[in-house]
Sequence to fold (432 residues):
Amino acid sequence: MRLLGRLFLAFTAATVCLPTAGAAAATVAPAPVIRADFPDPDVIQVGSTFYAYSTSSRPGRIPVASAPSATGPWTVRGDALPAKPSWAGDGGFWAPDVSRRPDGRYLMYFTGPSTATGRMCVGAATSANPLGPFQPAGGSPLVCDADEGGDIDPSSFVDTDGKRYLLYKNDGNAVGRPTILWLQQVAADGVTFVGGRTELIRNDRPEEAGVIEAPVLVKRPSQYVLFYSGGSYTGNSYFTGYAVSPSLTGRYTKAYRPLMTTATFDGAVQGPGGTDVLGDRAFFHGWVGDARHLYTAALGWAGDYPVVRGSRVRYEAERGTLNRATVRTGAAGASQGAVVAKIDHADSWVDVRVFAPVAGAYTAHVAYAAGYGDAQHLVTVNGTTRFTLDYPDRGWDNWTQVRAPLTLNAGWNTLRLQHRTRWAELDHVEIA
Fold:
């Protein structure tokens, strides 16, 4: 599967402290909004109230919480699914999804343990109230194929033409088979299948460690964006990625780098996954001790590609706009093998466009190499704010990051890095 190249975006007005290498980061990291076990969140808004649902934990089979805003305060209300389906045995219920049907009732998809197959399977329940109680629909699961490892992590999607779909994962990694994210059209009731299912993506990347799951689909003006989680959910290697397609049924192309990882959050969130998207917010869980807390962060769209505030996005310097500088390919150890070189003259510079989901504080992490003494660039943000960025001599092709705190406008901004003293090459800029 062809991989997406990185997005290269641009700055639009800012105020900046005068940073030096190692200056304190200005990044605004997500903080938990439910500081208790609330994994695999799904969030909806009804009127002015937000409701969130999670995998089984102490409050019940499907815990439900509510809040007056996306950022809280959130209150856990109890169990939205107090009655166990007749087909299900004992054990946890995973990754619920709640949506509203055209008839006004609320439809819940969930994953439960099938007594008949011994595998986890997808079921449904309905309620007149988003808090529940939800009543199981039918006497059997919606999707339950033991040969493919069972089926988990359902989510709903309604396209702009009003057609409704169910997404889910076959749990192939549980039985040594491929793990695939599927799209299945359903009738307005959400439980009657229409036609066959379509494969969207499967586990085929090293960082996924054989596991992809938790599909959530969003329609943007130019493309469909499929969010998913990858890796083992049990630790900080869990991550959120995405894939895009110009059409609903594919072909979906995975992004070159994950959207959210422990590293892109600089450790502020451990194992960010189980992600849901609602408007301009991303909701996801992260490990805190032995529990997964609920986090939320601002979400923006840079050319219909997602950007989450607090999570680093990489912009390759060589894909910026260059003046009296050159692109050097085959650079050892450089991101994607190319860098900007010969930024050697007073009028040598590179413009890198970057994106901010909301206005506010961010940090630029500039990856450089300098081998003939300490060097400096003059950094200009949106043609106004200027400061000097120092590059300590660490040796050529030894790509090192220095930090610069920034205040950015919402949307595109332009960052110019211009020669000031001695010589440095630029690999990339990461904005968090």
